[in-house]
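Our preliminary data section would be incomplete without showing what the modeling component actually yields. Below, a chain of 181 amino acids is followed by its predicted structure, encoded as tokens that our downstream tools consume directly.
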Amino acid sequence: MFVLDRIAEDLAGVVAGLEPARLTGSDAARLTATAARIEKLAATAKAALATRAEETHAWRSGRAVSPEQWLAETSGCSEGAAREALVTAKRVETLPATRERLLDGTLSMAQAALVSAGAAVDPSSERRLLKTRQPLPPPPPPRPRRRLRHHRPRRRHLGPARPDISRGPSPTPPGGGLTRR
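Predicted structure:
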């Protein structure tokens, strides 16, 4: 059993026993940041290992027809996201500062994809891109809903009474359908 297998088993046990309601707000916030770092490190490991599986054609053991499809099925993501992870992992091999940030868990694979795409165009821009990377802005707050007024049906105008046409029962209730509030 590899160390990564043991870590996954241990983490599964920790997550199963997690009781967020018993934590203070500050502990929950700190552990959220820790979980985000674990997530970034796991994504980095997954991309690096998937790249090796692609190089050795080990991904062919299943029913997938491409490395992207294999990674998508394994990860539960789209083929586009899998392709982006594989391309980013290959690009990062030539970008030491980006690789270092990925390996210490301070950079996500999504951020590394942006930095590596820019550095692919201009290799000297890696450090500048790492300095200027900004976290994604928070989503805008939900717009308040407007209260809709209930629509009252219009009174039908039947026109002048004609003696040769039978109207039948009145279409409006007594009082014209109006009530006092």
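Residues 25-55 form the longest helix (31 residues). The chain has a mean pLDDT of 85. Preliminary results of this kind motivate Aim 1 of the renewal.
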